[in-house]
Specification:
11 helices; 10 strands; binds S-adenosylmethionine; single chain; Cobalt-precorrin-4 Transmethylase, domain 1; five-stranded parallel β-sheet; five-stranded mixed β-sheet; Methyltransferase, Cobalt-precorrin-4 Transmethylase, Domain 2
Length: 276
Amino acid sequence: MATLYIVPTPIGNLEDITLRALRVLREVRLIAAEDTRTSRVLLDHFDIKTPMTSYHEHNKLAKLDAIFAALAGGDVALISDAGTPGISDPGYELIVAALAQGVRVEALPGACAAITALVASGLPTDAFAFLGFPPRKASELRAFFEAIRNEPRTVILYESPYRLVDTLQAALAVLGAARPACVGREISKLHEEYTRAPIGEVLAYYQSHTPRGEVVLLIGGAPPPVAQAWDEARVRAALAARLDEGEPLKVAAKALATLSGWDRRTIYGFGIEEES
Ligand code: SAM
């Protein structure tokens, strides 16, 4: 059975292509490329002669039949202009259609600006949300940040350098100047730069250094909400119940301090009042 290979290509440095990607690109019968002129440079660099056809945002549905016709006769590889196809790049519709038709789909691991920037950012990597490009319209951009105001995971966004300052301003207005952030610019290229600082400082930096090249914006997750402190009556009632059950005052005060948000010594004082 033929295989549709999803092949990541470099996001800058041409060395960031795997040996397996080069072999697959050489061996398939056809390469579906987002922009055949852009990919020609890459293929020429590695002396790969495989025929190409275009597969981009504007023909991605019309082109499906031609790609399936090619798959009937052998393997096909999908590449985008840079990075991993399907990640803010064409690929999703083809992959879904291929799976629906019983075509084997194999994605190769490789370059992706979002993951590279995340790892270098110094922001938590244990949980993250990749949200692609944020909206351009000011009202939608603000609503976008409102929607992620309490998001606890690191948020990864792709952005154009021309909109970066506006986007940072909107982020600051909603999330505040102190939220940790990072901009990864020109990753893997000559002028690679990471700006790791609170949103306010990142914004100030890019207001005085016009951003050029490609950028990834990362925003640290919202801190966990502060537990709502109990009112005094609730603390006293809970303490009385524990003391009635024979729990020592010291133990009860400590446990309730954690639960209620009240100071341990204050709760201890309530206990002394109860006993007197
Ligand atoms: N499919 C690609 C990937 O796997 O990363 C992303 C394609 S998307 C159309 C292009 C966006 O990715 C850029 O606007 C930028 O936000 C980000 N990007 C791509 N290459 C980058 C680089 N070398 N440095 C920083 N950001 C990059």
